[in-house]
Specification:
The complex is a heterodimer of chains A (about 100) and B (about 675). Chain A is α+β, with helices and mostly antiparallel strands. Chain A has helices spanning about 30-40, 75, 90-95; strands at about 20-30, 50-55, 60-65, 70, 80-85. Chain A has a single domain, classed as Ferrous iron transport protein A (FeoA) (SH3 type barrels, Roll), CATH 2.30.30.90. Chain A is built from three helices and five strands, in the order βαβββαβα. Chain A has a five-stranded antiparallel β-sheet. The N and C termini of chain A lie far apart (about 35 Å). With about 675 residues, chain B is an alpha/beta fold. Chain B has two domains: about 5-260, P-loop containing nucleotide triphosphate hydrolases (Rossmann fold); about 285-485 and about 500-670, no CATH class. In chain B, helix 12 (about 285-325) packs antiparallel against helix 13 (about 330-370), helix 13 (about 330-370) packs across helix 18 (about 435-445) and helix 25 packs antiparallel against helix 27. The longest helix of chain B has about 45 residues, at about 285-325. In chain B, about 50% of the residues are buried. Classes of the chains: A alpha+beta (about 100), B alpha/beta (about 675). At the A-B interface, helix 1, strand 2 and strand 4 of A face helix 4, helix 10, helix 11, helix 14 and strand 9 of B. Strand 4 (about 70) of chain A pairs antiparallel with strand 9 of chain B.
Chain lengths: ~100, ~675
Amino acid sequence: MKGNHDHEPKAATLSDLRLGQTGVIGSVNATGMVRNRLLDLGLLHGTRVTAVRRAPLGDPTAYKVRGATLALRHEDASVVAVTLEPVSDPEVEAEQC
Amino acid sequence: MLSRPARRAGGRAAMYLSPHHCADERVIALAGNPNTGKSTVFNALTGLRQHTGNWPGKTVDLAFGRVDLCGRHAVVVDLPGGYSLLACSEDESIARDFLCEEGPDATVVVVEAGCLERNLSLVLQIIELTPNVVVCVNLIDEAKRRGLQVDDKALERELGVPVALTAASRGAGLEQLKRILIDLIDRRIKPEPLPVTYPADIEDASRELESKLPTLPPAVSRRYVALRMLDTDPQIRERIVEAIYCRAKSISDKVVSQTQSSVRAPNAPTESRIDDVLTSRWLGLPVMLALLGGVFWITLVGANYPSALLAEALFHMESWLSTALWAARAPDWLHGAAVLGAYRTMAWVVSVMLPPMAIFFPLFTLLEDLGYLARVSFNVDWCLKKCGAHGKQSLTMAMGFGCNAAGVMACRIIDSPRERLVAILTNNFAPCNGRFPTLIALASLIAAGSLPASILVAAMVLLGVAVTLGMSWALSRTVLRGVPSSFILELPPYRMPQVAKVLLRSLYDRTLLVLKRALIVAAPAGVVVWALANMTTPAGESVLASIARTLQPAAAMMGLDGFILTSFILGLPANEIVLPILVMAYSSSTALTETAGLASLGRILAANGWTWLTALNTMIFSVLHFPCSTTLLTIAAETKSARWTGFAALMPTAVAIAACCAVRVTARLLGLA
């Protein structure tokens, strides 16, 4: 699996989030069903998303979004562009929902 | 765009309602996100034992029940759980179509108190569609433990519809919900919902479109139709969803408050610590396997005693029946068909099959209600992805462990047709409840002690999983070529299951189910087998023996014998009758009279030349062979294709034959048998 591991804010996607790191969604760069599904679950412009855990085999990753925990595969997470926030204190999680 | 699915669903909904519903009866729809305890609310309202599950997309079809509202009855329709009415997957469009077409008298939207914002987005979409809505804020006890409080009056003001706070598993708040429902149905309260206001350009376009729409059925909101026509444009759709979530967030911010005492959300760290173990890199998979083995161990140990007890009681009864029939001077053929055929097969099904089912099923349900199955999905998803399968296939597989027909039907939760077909065709490799007892009985014959036996059963399940993955991989690279489509799995919070309720309900449900199937499937099959064993061919042997002799060469190659193969074929109507039929076939050909419980099973099989290899191959064949007739019919209904149904029968059979031959040859080469 080739992951883009340099954390340059502009090119970052959800799949670049390290565990515990929070990002703010910029845009969902997908079409059709994938896009609609992600939007319906509340992954919208400006939404804060925190990566919380990774599956034993390295994929998928679970994210905290609007109070719910959603697991996304690497391929799906990489269509969601985010602005990374610096690795934050645990208060961030408490603030969400 | 809208007319096509709507028309189809109209037909379906009407079809669904007809047997349950008289014209003057009121209809209450139950909607909500997955994991909100919707099915618990349904059960609490109706008293019906519909199975509830703590995993996404459990209800893929409409379940019905009746609720007693102060002496008046109404039909409650449990709609599939979904996140949105903007219709993505088939189950979500079922929910939308029902609300649009049936125009229920009242709609209960169940939302999770601890995750109000996301849930409110669905509420806001539903109140756009129908005004007679009551919002049921469920799981308030769980939210309270996390230090969250929901202000129901403020929520009512924000939404313009009545709100009830409930903790359905404990029955709290249900009376209030029922009172609101009565008022809604009698039109004593007329909610005036406050739906989302969209950006001005969208509102203008929607109004203009509304005025140009043709006449619609009365239940359908013109504004809703206009908006759905507009949101086929991705840009507009995104802005509509943004407006909905923006409103949802602002409402949630107003009505949810953190109580002083537990600002730090006390159980969140506990939960995350549990997940740190259950989904951890090193422990996640071992713990999963250990739990699987543990479940089988409990089933094996627990089933022995009741099985022996049931066998003794039922075979006692058999001798009474025989005595009674002889006393009544019944002809021999009647005694044979009724007692040695029908009754004895039923007795075997009940005594050997019922106890493991009655133990395994509740254990599985407890893990599911706890929320663990979603973690299993999370843990193994990588493998599914590598095999070109959809992530939800782990859920349909899990359903398959209960019943493959249900598993095949559950494949509707998979949006992509290719992956849905992969999931349907491979579902049979998840050994169902009808096959577990066979596996368990045979495992305890080969392996000495309950621990090795449970490991053997777990290995058989893993074989089924491995073949599922392998065949999904092969299908994805040949006849069903493609890459996996997107997939999102929600990990629900862990919830303490209602242990006593689950145990009692499962015991009751399983017992009824097994008894029913014993009556309608096992008994007739028993008569057929008895007839085959007692009718003779011109050559003087029984028809059964002659079939078995014909199959013998093929069976021998697979390390089985002709009778075993015959039993699998005669057992097509239901997997749980394979072993009973086999015992019948053996006893009728060798005139064995001893028939009681697991212990005698070993003696009967050994007397017919079984070795450990025969038992092992029978287990393998049981896991991999063709689906039962119910499952095949379901596959035919779901795929609407005779070719795929044929493939679903032949492909597993070929795999089973290949696997058994391979095991036999390997054992030979290694000098083990």
